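I would love for you to help me understand the pair of lines that follows before we discuss the fold together.
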Amino acid sequence: MGQPPTPRAQRTRDRIQGVALDLIGRQGYAQTTVEQIARGAGVSHMTFFRHFVTKAAVVLDDPFDPAIAEAVAAQPADLAPVARVCAGLRVVVRSPDLPADEHLRTRVRTVATTSVLAQGMWANTRATERAIADALGDLPEATAAVAAAAAIGALTAGLLEWGCNDSSPPLRDCLLAALEVLEGGAPHA
């Protein structure tokens, strides 16, 4: 997919996204323009579009698929399919790199409340399911697809609970509880 961004490019991308999410959090998605985002980030229109192909991409950006696939692939093949996927997802959820800040909450709320972004969210979800199913390459395709879809459904429910409810537990706890429910356990309170 190309070279990773340079540190300078990553800082610019992060600044653009941060400004965008601050504006969207204050004004709403529809009321926030690319012009406002670019101006607030101190970049040109062209620079915005070099980093994000659309305004929706600022909200829908999901860089976790490679880490998720790698963590799932690293799990023992003798685990049941759903347990294997959940074990890999727990590695990612427990990672210190898991974002759980207000920008992520703004992203989740915006997607949950903006119908135009729903298609993009489902496309991202399908891509993540595909990455997980591919990481289970030793299993029959249908088995891998079902295990991946079940796990992503559980994580999406946990993410939406956290993102749309200010009184919810921390993100990590919501995601771990969702995985626990999927595996047949009782979530911790």
User: Anything to note?
Assistant: The CA atoms of residues 93 and 172 lie 6 Å apart.
